[in-house]
Amino acid sequence: MNNMHPEAAESLALINRMIENTRNRLSRNSGRPFLIWGYTTVAVSLFNYVVNVTGGPVGWSWSWFLIPVVGFLLTRLFPAKKSTEPRTEIDRIVSAVWATASLALIPVFAFVLFHGLSYRASLFGLIALIMAIATTATGRIVRSKIYIVSGYSGLILTLLFPLYDRYLKQLPAGRVDATMLNFEILIFAGVFIVMMIVPGHIFNHRSQRHVQ
Amino acid sequence: MFSELDPLLHSALRLAVMSVLLGVESADFVFLREQTGATAGNLSVQLDKLAKAGYITVEKCFRGKMPRTVCRMTATGRDAFAAYVAALETYIRK
Fold first, then answer.
1. Is residue B19 included in any domain, yes or no?
2. Closest residue on chain A to B4 (Cα)
3. How confident is the model at residue A207 (pLDDT cuts 50, 70, 90)?
4. Do the Cβ atoms of A83 and B26 come within 8 Å?
5. Which domain range does residue B23 map to?
6. How far apart are alpha carbons A81 and A79 in whole angstroms?
7. pLDDT band at B1, cuts 50/70/90?
């Protein structure tokens, strides 16, 4: 880049090129948080499913709390952006959406654990729903079809929770036992694969191709 | 009738810097140098000119023990950039 005075058309081309280059550079690895949280959630879910199905100790269910701990640590260890790379207004808005969605999980936990004497809503269903809303919002903010489609897919897939619940209710009383609820964990993992892991890989692949 | 082009922005490197800063909240010197491909000395001089015109702010700080220069576009800079693009359009439409 030099200090020459460009022609009008060259100036506009330069402006477009710099804006485009900056956008491409900053979108590199932006699928990484989705991959980190997606893989962590799926891994912990499958672990818990195996423990439950094999009749492991109930205490192992505390391992669900590994999701925020491991997810947070991995996000710090492998940030989407280098420390020298700037933040954009969009980054700030997307961070605010995810911070709000994450905070919303606290009342959801309270709601599921303490509300309802005869019936409790599915914790997995509500968490998946909130994450699907945040994914869809992210997609709409950053104008990414990948995240919009995966977010809406997540929203639709959360319907599997009430559908499965309805299926269980229709079964004869003798055929239903508590272990059948473990299947909800598999639905939960499936939603996160569709909603976070798949789009995260697609997004990273596309942004790296842009940079090349 | 052609609008007058802002001479401060009508330079490839200064225009590139302003274009990068337009899309971000702030950018550090290293990032600007990588994006524009300019030499550190040249970039430093051009940043100084933009700062003196009030188009950007340049803040020297530390990240840990590493010195860091952070640039941010000002409201004056945004207005000047918008006026420059509008003026360019009159040339393109001729």
1. yes
2. A8
3. confident
4. no
5. 12-86
6. 5
7. low
B93 lies in some domain: no
Confidence class of residue A117 from pLDDT cuts 50, 70 and 90? Answer: low
**A87 in contact with chain B, both atoms CB, cutoff 8 A:** yes
Most confident listed range (A56-60, A101-105, A170-174): A101-105
Q: Answer whether B71 touches A (CB < 8 Å).
A: no
Would the CB atoms of B12 and A3 count as touching at under 8 Å? yes
Quick one: what percent of chain B has pLDDT higher than 70? 95
How high is the pLDDT of residue A118? 56
Distance from CA of B76 to the nearest CA of A (A): 18
Among A3, A15, A89, the residue with its CB nearest the CB of B19 is: A15
Q: Which of A4, A15, A17, A143 to mutate to test the interface with B (most CBs of B within 10 A)?
A: A15
**What pLDDT score was predicted for residue A25?**
79
Q: What is the mean pLDDT of chain A?
A: 87
B51 in a domain, yes or no? yes
* Count of domains for chain B: 1
How far from A207 is each of A11, A146, A166, A191, B92, CA to CA, in Å? 26, 12, 42, 24, 32
pLDDT bucket at A210, cuts 50 / 70 / 90:
low
Tokens of B14: 């200064």
Contact between chains at B12 and A18 (C-beta distance less than 8 A): no
Q: Is A163 on the interface with B (CB under 8 A)?
A: no
Give the strands of the sheet with B27-28, arranged side by side. B27-28, B66-73, B56-63
- Determine how many CB atoms are found less than 10 A away from the CB of residue A193: 15
> pLDDT category, A70, cuts 50, 70, 90?
very high
**The domain that contains B82 carries what CATH number?**
1.10.10.10
Please compute, for residue B36, the number of CA atoms within 13 A of its CA located in the half-sphere on the CB side.
Answer: 31
∠ CA A117-A119-A122, nearest 5°, is 130
B63 vs A contacts (CB less than 8 Å): 83
